[in-house]
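chain below, 201 aa
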Amino acid sequence: MKILESIMGQSVSGWIIDALIIVFGLWVAIRLSSLHKEVKDVHEEAKKNSESVKGEDIYNMATGMMQYTVKSKYDPASMDSVRSKYNELSGRIHAWSQTISIFPLLGLLGTVMGIIPGLASTANGDFTALQSQLSVALYSTFIGLIFSILLKGQVANYSKTFSDVEDFFEEFDRKYNLALNYQRVIVGNKTDDGNIEDENR
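prediction:
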């Protein structure tokens, strides 16, 4: 309650900065949440493509090479489209996450603007007004820091989804490259579109 009363006692400029921090903070949080939902859709597509590649790793004693028994059709083009979509979303989330560093600065700006009126009274040796203005103005910095911490936590919470998607890409590439090696050494038929499938299927 005391915090609310202090905030209510701020100057007009302090009110404007505080409102800007709150509105902008909520907007960034909503945008990050929306983009994360799109990344989760990409996560499911990447998982589906990765799991669609079936086969068994084989070590050929004669050649000393790791090979791959091809049991399903490989479609790198489908994974490439998922990868492209992921890269786009990742870049957008990164751009929005960079705005988080603005919030402490906005809070500091609100604090400085709140202190300035109190400095005029110090010319007469009266520091009471300055102390009062300072205690109120610091709430702008407080609000800015709170939003910065919350948004940082929100972005950190999304890291698992990004990590999983990248793991799916790596697994798909590993299986596809093994299939290419297997095709060159033993069997397999590479179609014109770059897909690989078992010729015995």
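Residues 2-197 form one domain. The first helix runs from residue 2 to 8.
thats it, cya
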